[in-house]
Specification:
Blueprint (H helix, E strand, L loop, with lengths): L3 E8 L2 E11 L8 E3 L4 E8 L2 E6 L5 E6 L9 E4 L4 E6 L5 E8 L7 E3 L2
Antiparallel strand pairs: 1-2, 2-9, 3-8, 3-10, 4-7, 4-9, 5-6, 5-8
Length: 114
Amino acid sequence: KDGVVCDVYKFTEDDSKDLAIVRVEAGSATPLQKILLGDRTIEGYVSGKGVLTITRANGEKEVYQVGNDDMQEPFSKVLMIGDTMQWQADKIGELVFYEVCFPPYKDGRFEDIA
């Protein structure tokens, strides 16, 4: 998607997972994605400011502001099949987050909803 760049890395000693580092340009957002496959997906904050919106499979919505001065500890959330997610960067500056897929990413893991 325009404004979003994703680099994927494999672990040399561990084929149970992979890692994506995603950069979202200021004012841009990732596609709204639904998780269709996999044991679990971990979404975590690296740098910048933005919002992660998660809607759990049961319909419960969670909204997290990241990059604020009051963040005391590393931020990560575990998502499962049926959950949806979307990251949105603040209007000023790039947002960087990571995604760990267990097992490693394969086409069909996510469905782009919007």
